[in-house]
Structures are given as C-alpha cells and as structure tokens.
Automatic annotation (TrEMBL):
<feature type="active site" description="Proton donor">
    <location>
        <position position="111"/>
    </location>
</feature>
<feature type="binding site">
    <location>
        <position position="109"/>
    </location>
    <ligand>
        <name>(6R)-10-formyltetrahydrofolate</name>
    </ligand>
</feature>
<feature type="domain" description="Formyl transferase N-terminal">
    <location>
        <begin position="3"/>
        <end position="184"/>
    </location>
</feature>
<dbReference type="GO" id="GO:0004644">
    <property type="term" value="F:phosphoribosylglycinamide formyltransferase activity"/>
</dbReference>
<dbReference type="InterPro" id="IPR002376">
    <property type="entry name" value="Formyl_transf_N"/>
</dbReference>
<comment type="pathway">
    <text>Purine metabolism; IMP biosynthesis via de novo pathway; N(2)-formyl-N(1)-(5-phospho-D-ribosyl)glycinamide from N(1)-(5-phospho-D-ribosyl)glycinamide (10-formyl THF route): step 1/1.</text>
</comment>
<dbReference type="InterPro" id="IPR036477">
    <property type="entry name" value="Formyl_transf_N_sf"/>
</dbReference>
<dbReference type="GO" id="GO:0005829">
    <property type="term" value="C:cytosol"/>
</dbReference>
<keyword id="KW-0808">Transferase</keyword>
<dbReference type="InterPro" id="IPR004607">
    <property type="entry name" value="GART"/>
</dbReference>
<keyword id="KW-0658">Purine biosynthesis</keyword>
<dbReference type="Pfam" id="PF00551">
    <property type="entry name" value="Formyl_trans_N"/>
</dbReference>
<feature type="binding site">
    <location>
        <position position="67"/>
    </location>
    <ligand>
        <name>(6R)-10-formyltetrahydrofolate</name>
    </ligand>
</feature>
<feature type="binding site">
    <location>
        <begin position="13"/>
        <end position="15"/>
    </location>
    <ligand>
        <name>N(1)-(5-phospho-beta-D-ribosyl)glycinamide</name>
    </ligand>
</feature>
<feature type="site" description="Raises pKa of active site His">
    <location>
        <position position="147"/>
    </location>
</feature>
<comment type="similarity">
    <text>Belongs to the GART family.</text>
</comment>
<comment type="function">
    <text>Catalyzes the transfer of a formyl group from 10-formyltetrahydrofolate to 5-phospho-ribosyl-glycinamide (GAR), producing 5-phospho-ribosyl-N-formylglycinamide (FGAR) and tetrahydrofolate.</text>
</comment>
Amino acid sequence: MKKRVAIFISGGGSNMVRLLEDMNKDDHPAEPVLVLANSADAGGLAKAAQMGVKTVAVDHRPFKGDRAAFEAALQAELDTVQPDILCLAGFMRVLTEGFVATWEGRMLNIHPSLLPKYKGLHTHARAIDAGDEEHGCTVHLVTPALDDGPILGQATVPIEDGDTPETLAARVLKQEHELYPAVLRRFAAGNTTPITL
C-alpha cells in the first residue's frame, strides 16, 4: 500500500513538480493525493492539475490573521483525501503549534540553508555575508519551532567568489530538486536515516 502524500505550496511549485515527477514512477512507495496552495494565484496549481493531481486553494487572506480558522480550513481539505504524509514545498505561511502537533512525525519541509544555520528568511544573503565557504538546503521533519526538527537530508554547494544571493539561490535550488524527492522516497518507505548529497 503506497503512502498518500499531500503537498502545500505558495508559488510556482518547482519542488512540488519534482516530487510529483518522482512519485509518478512505478517503484515509488508514495502517491500524490492533493496539492494545496494558500492562494488561487499560485502557479504550481496549474502544473499539478496538468500532472493529474487534485488541487485546491485555501486563500489565507479572508481569515484576516485568524490562523486557527485558516488551519481548520486546511485540515478540512486534508480530511477529504486522508494523506499519510504532508510535504511543505515553498509554503510561505507559518503553521501554529496545534496544527503541527496533529502532523508531527509526518510533515516534511525543505529549507534553503544547512540547518541549524540560518533559520527563517534571506538565507543566501546571510550565508554570503557570514563569509561561509558552503551553503545548501535541508529537508527536516516539522516541529512547532521554526525551521527546527530532526534533519532527514542535506545537500551542499560551494559559495563562489562573486556570488550574489540570486546566483547562490539558483545553485541551491538545483540541489533542492534532487534532495527533496530522494528524502521523500526514503521516508515513505520508513527510512528516516539522514542522507547527504
């Protein structure tokens, strides 16, 4: 029995596309059952629909900061498809402790830094400003603390002379597209041993 996966996005969904492409392979231990965005404008929704996956938008704006009500709407959509695993793939909303607790141990996130370094935003600029020699991305289990939780995989890239946040981000994104599918495949098969690419 394949694990059922829901993916949350906020934008174009490039990591989501890579996850879907990998789950389309016959030997994958998981299958996608839903792609959810917090805005109907998210470009990834159309991509997911073209790939044959159910999509839904739950716009956070009408909830006017009532995160509990917004998350109740998210959970109602999840209840319709009963996923086993929830993947955050560029989902730009901070989830409350209550929502995370419901999914703890079953919710993955990808973050563009080598955690525990550079939690939060502007990770590429922060790595350059710190004079780091390498940077990268991390897939981790989500806990109530922001960008915390057990690490399931990391991929590194060197920081090169003359790098800007944009050039570094582009190289890290390529690694994200390799790392996230690899980690999900292992996680869905019951393997939580961290990997390094």
